[in-house]
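Record 1 of the preview.
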Amino acid sequence: MTETSPAENNEKIARPKLLPPGIILPFVLVTSLFALWGFANDITNPMVAAFKNILLISNFESSLVQFAFYGGYCFMAIPAAIFIKRFTYKTGILVGLGLYATGCLLFIPAGAMMAFSAFLIAYFIMTCGLSFLETSSNPYVLSMGPEETATQRLNFAQSFNPMGSLTGMLIARNFILSRIDSSTEAERTVIRDTMPDKFAAIQQHDLDIIIGPYMILGLVVLAVLIIFALAKLPRSKDEDDNKLNLGATFSRLFRNRKYIEGVIAQAFYVGVQIMCWTFIIQYAGSELGMEKSTAQSYNIVAMIIFVSSRFICTALLKYFSPGGLLMTLALGGLGLILGTIFIKGMLGLYCLVGVSACMSLMFPTIYGIALKGLGDDAKLGAAGLIMAIGGGCLMPPMQGWIMDQSAFNLGFMELSSARASFVLPLICFVVIAIFGFRTSKVHGHTY
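->
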């Protein structure tokens, strides 16, 4: 029998806990928000394909849904961070829930107007609220315990985000995509040109189906807002200082290479996530002739893989460095995207679905790496990382534009525009792999 020395026993006793006593209930409440914005993200991704069919617009035009949705994140991130710095994390959460609910309920007048631009405004306001929620919740979770376990704690909280995402996907498939008119774009075009009144009636029917889940979501978010208004959330130690000192804070952040590289990596990560999940429906439709509701089932499988991998990767962080694991998964994602581009048929689709296993770790790990050691600067630092969600605003329209082009002749093979468009996710994984490598080898002494 091997005896442990007193020093080893002290080391076991001193090992920092994931959550201190008394923080569990507030942590559960804040963690519920991760599922709430995950739901919004992934009920919205399939709407790109839905609006394209309903309104007879191009891939580029329909992807403006993502431009408006993630544009709200980008636009509101710094104002949200300044607001939270001036007040508290709880106040930021309440404002975020209010804007979130308002955006959802604006779908009602948008549907009555039958105007795509009105839906885009509703999405934008909704995600201004989500920007407040993420700018508040992520650093708040990091502050809810020892700094040594901050990244693991955030990974655990983020594990509930894909559960909301999966619910959103199921709602989109079963209550929207499967219920809207099943006529193809070609058939709709004929109806529009020959029977405009019937076409308008079909459009109104389909838009009403889209409005229903968003209206219910708005009411649920209002209920959550009331719960948070009544709840007592502990103040973190960095909330006692509400002086802004913007110039000094921004100066320190811009001099921090690890942080700046983290913001860049996060922009490319969000871009790759949104592109892979948004256009899986178009990929399955153009390459394999699948119906939208059937293709959405593969999106759901991808999310189940994502959820499972998130818990596995969170456990692996106990044994591997965050930067090294991040780099390894980015290289795995790069390999699978190559399969998506160059392998035809179901195997190419399987590669695209499998990418989700590699993406699961990335957002919270990049977030934790970038904010580690920032102290009170983390509030404004979090804003930069939420602004990086703007990667999901810019890249999907770029991919949609590539999809609208003719096939590409590479000399040795012809590549469909749908498969060629995934060169953008490929570039994203290269950038993330470089950041993971630099975190381990260059910034290792600061992480």
